Amino acid sequence: MDTSRLLADIGGTNARFAWQARPGAPIEDVATLPCAGYAGLDDALADILQRLGRPAPRRCAIAIANPVLGDLVRMTNHHWAFSISAVQARFCFAQLKVLNDFTALALALPALEPAELRPLGGGCALPAAPMGLIGPGTGLGVSALLPDGRGGHVAVAGEGGHVTLPACTAREQQVLAQLAERHGHVSAERAVCGQGLVDLHAALCALDAPGGPPPALTAADVTAAALARSDARCVEALEMFCAFLGTVAGNLALTLGARGGVYLGGGIVPRLGAFIDGSPFRERVEAKGRFRGYLAAIPVFVINSRQSPALRGAARALDAC
Predict the structure, then answer these.
(1) Which helix (H) or strand (E) holds 85?
(2) Parts of the chain with a pLDDT under 50
(3) Contact between 145 and 228 (Cβ < 8 Å)
(4) Which of 44, 100, 219, 275 has a CA 20 to 30 Å removed from the CA of 82?
(5) Is there a binding annotation on residue 289?
(6) 6: helix, strand or coil
(7) 147 forms bridges with which residues in the sheet?
(8) What is the DSSP string of 218-261?
């Protein structure tokens, strides 16, 4: 019997694929394809199977940056849309599991090695306690892993990146007013993602130089200038990004009682290195009035893995079926 499985972790920018020969086997042949290079998921799946030189396996798990609420999946931060049943029929998958990418990443948390986690303050993670997960990339993913009372865990499939973003300073209030003019509702994702960093920088420029030409910087440009400390406004934008992330992460920790730790995933935070250590991030996590001491004890970890942990989570989701 064919026990191999195709695994995928699909974000708004990149689609990562991998092969697993059987349940529990190493994840291998990891390849990354640009989402913009394909008209749809079907084309990317067909291409990766051709590159691997393998026929479609009987089982496939796809972690995708989008809520999965039924058969039709339409990505929030990319143009791909597909029917789960149609994809299953085209590739003759006996089993196709499609789940939110941060739900998959949450499932992978217990399997992460200490070397894949960089601590950002707090105490020790308590076993059998809820774990929070948040991560900015193309969007802002949020999930959690909750103990099921039987020695296992249940991953939360939510859309916490779209909660309303609060301001904690007058400067932040001014920036959020700028974002509100553009977007109406200002969610956490509007500021804490790649495009959000660009918008924070543009809002600061508009506040400090009204009527000036809009900046033409990408998220990578703003980050590079901030890390090099070569542009004060880029530094402020990235520090505000980290502050907003800390505020939302602290809210998540309180909501969940995440004494098992809060984990930072996504593609942006690992690239910041020590910048986030010196930013307002940790102070904002703990700045919750009477619950400062409660939050000070909760550890935060940056997920720093060479291989997409969501692929491991996708494999675990297949194992549970």
Answers:
(1) helix 84-91
(2) none
(3) no
(4) 219
(5) no
(6) strand
(7) 153
(8) -HHHHHHHHHTT--HHHHHHHHHHHHHHHHHHHHHHHHHT-TT-
Contact status, residue 159 vs residue 67, Cβ threshold 8 Å: yes
Whole-model pTM: value is 0.92
pLDDT of residue 12: 86
Strand partners, 140: 136
Query: Quick one: CA torsion of 305, 43, 140, 218, rounded to 10 degrees?
Result: 90
Identify the architecture of domain 115-304 in CATH: 3-Layer(aba) Sandwich (3.40)
- The span from the CA of 99 to the CA of 246, in Å, is 26
Is 179 within 8 Å of 167 (Cβ atoms)?
A: no
Q: Residue 126: what pLDDT?
A: 95
Q: Is 43 annotated as a binding residue?
A: no
Answer yes or no: is 8 a known binding residue: yes
The verdict on whether residue 48 carries a ligand-binding annotation is no
The answer to whether 11 is annotated as binding is: yes
Assigned token pair, 269: 């935070």
In Å, what is the CA distance from 11 to each residue of 40, 62, 87, 225, 251? 13, 11, 18, 25, 25
pLDDT of residue 151: 85
Could you give the CA distance from residue 231 to residue 264 in angstroms, rounded to a whole number?
26
Q: In what order do the strands lie in the sheet with 14-20?
A: 27-34, 14-20, 5-10, 59-64, 95-100
Rounded CA gap, 227 and 215, in Å?
18
Could you give the CA distance from residue 34 to residue 44 in angstroms, rounded to a whole number? 9
User: What tokens appear for 2 in the block?
Assistant: 């064919």
Which of 104, 94, 143, 103 lies closest to 18 in space, CA to CA?
104
CATH architecture, domain defined by 5-106+308-319: 2-Layer Sandwich (3.30)
Spatial separation of the C-alpha atoms in residues 286 and 28, rounded to whole Å: 39
Distance CA 36, CA 33 (A): 9
pLDDT of residue 152: 87
Does 276 show up as a binding residue in the annotation?
no
Angle at 159 between CA 161 and CA 264, to 5 degrees: 50
**The tokens 């089982």 sit on which residue?**
59
